[in-house]
C-alpha cells in the first residue's frame, strides 16, 4: 500500500500569540506534532507493516516544521515532504486543503490518505474533509478501527449510542481518532535509519499551485478580535422559566 499521512506542527506552549490579523505567530515558539497525528502515523505504519508498501509523511509550514517530519521518520516513515512557501502563510482550512491535495497529486498514485481527526490548536476538523473534496475521493471521518477487504477499506466509528461500520473502495481519505491505536515509540534503529533519509521540500511553484488559492489570498475565513461576553437565555419548559447564564 502507498499511504500518505498528513501531519501538523502546533505550538508547544500555553502562551499563544496572535499577529495583527488574528493569525497564530508560530515562529520562535516551541513546537510539537499534533497529538492525534501520531495515531495517524501509527495507523499508516501498521498497514504498511501488514501489507507492504510505503508511508510518506507530509506537512505544510515554515522551515522549522521539518522537526515533526524528522519525528515521523524516526517512527519509521519511508519518506517525508515539507510544503513550505511564503505564499502558504495565513491559510485557513480551505487554502490548506487545496495545497495538501496538490501535494497528494504530485506524489502520484496512492491508496490511502490519513489525517488526525482534528488539530489541537484549532479544533476545526475540516482539513481532512476539505482535502478529500479537492481530490474527489471518498471520505470516512473519526475512524477508530481499520480493516482491508480486497480493494476496499472497512472502518469502525464509535459513537455514544453505538458503533458504525463504513466501507469504501480505495483510494480514499480517512481521519482517525486517538482511540484507534497507541503510537509506537521511536526505536534506536528507526532513529538511525531516519537520520539517513532526507526531507523533500516543495514550494508553490513545485506543486503547480494557483497562488490565488493559497495562503491568505485563498482563505475566505478571516480572524477578528474577540472578548468574553455574558449572554442570558430564557427557556420556557413545562411552564417553568429557567434563566441560564452562559459565559
Structural features:
26% helix; seven-stranded parallel sheet; 14 strands; globular; 247 residues; Rossmann fold; alpha/beta; disordered C terminus; three-stranded antiparallel sheet
> So what's the overall shape?
globular
- Overall tally of structural domains: 1
Q: SSE string, helix = H, strand = E?
A: EEEHEHEHEHEEEEEHEHEE
Query: What percent strand?
Result: 25-35%
Q: If you consult CATH, what is the topology?
A: Rossmann fold
Number of helices: 6
Structure description:
There is one protein chain. With 247 residues, the protein is of the alpha/beta class. It has a single domain, classed as 3-Layer(aba) Sandwich (Rossmann fold), CATH 3.40.50.620. Helix content is 26%, strand content 31%. Strands 7-11-6-1-4-5-12 form a 7-stranded parallel sheet, with helices on both faces. A hairpin with a 2-residue loop joins β9 and β10. α2 crosses α5 and α3 packs across α4. The longest helix is centred in the first third of the chain and has 17 residues. It is globular and about 45 Å long. The C terminus is likely disordered.
Describe the structure concisely.
With 247 residues, the protein is of the alpha/beta class.
SSE layout:
Elements: E1 2-6, E2 9-11, E3 31-33, H1 35-51, E4 54-60, H2 66-75, E5 79-83, H3 93-107, E6 112-116, H4 127-135, E7 139-143, E8 145-149, E9 152-159, E10 162-169, E11 172-176, H5 188-195, E12 200-202, H6 204-207, E13 231-237, E14 240-246
Amino acid at each position: 500500500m502507498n499511504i500518505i499521512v498528513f501531519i501538523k506542527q502546533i505550538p508547544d506552549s500555553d502562551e499563544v500569540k496572535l499577529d495583527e490579523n488574528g493569525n497564530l505567530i508560530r515562529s520562535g515558539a516551541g513546537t510539537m506534532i499534533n497529538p492525534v497525528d501520531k495515531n495517524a502515523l501509527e495507523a499508516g505504519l501498521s498497514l504498511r507493516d501488514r501489507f507492504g508498501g510505503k508511508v510518506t509523511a507530509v506537512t505544510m509550514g515554515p522551515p522549522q516544521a521539518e522537526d515533526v517530519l524528522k519525528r515521523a521518520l524516526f517512527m519509521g516513515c519511508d519518506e517525508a515532504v515539507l510544503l513550505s512557501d511564503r505564499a502558504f502563510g495565513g491559510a485557513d482550512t480551505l487554502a490548506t486543503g487545496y495545497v495538501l491535495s496538490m501535494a497528494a497529486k504530485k506524489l502520484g498514485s496512492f491508496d490511502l490518505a490519513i489525517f488526525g481527526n482534528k488539530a489541537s490548536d484549532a479544533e476545526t476538523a475540516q482539513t481532512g474533509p476539505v482535502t478529500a473534496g479537492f481530490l474527489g475521493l471518498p471520505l470516512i471521518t473519526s475512524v477508530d478501527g481499520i480493516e482491508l477487504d480486497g480493494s476496499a477499506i472497512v472502518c469502525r466509528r464509535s459513537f455514544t449510542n453505538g458503533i458504525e461500520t463504513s466501507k469504501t473502495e480505495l483510494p480514499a481519505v480517512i481521519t482517525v481518532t486517538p482511540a484507534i491505536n497507541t503510537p509506537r515509540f521511536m526505536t534506536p534503529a528507526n532513529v538511525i535509519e531516519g537520520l539517513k533519509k532526507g526531507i523533500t521540500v516543495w514550494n508553490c511553484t513545485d506543486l503547480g499551485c494557483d497562488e490565488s488559492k493559497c495562503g491568505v489570498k485563498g482563505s475566505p475565513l478571516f480572524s477578528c478580535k474577540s472578548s468574553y461576553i455574558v449572554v442570558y437565555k430564557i427557556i420556557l419548559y413545562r411552564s417553568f422559566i429557567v434563566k441560564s447564564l452562559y459565559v
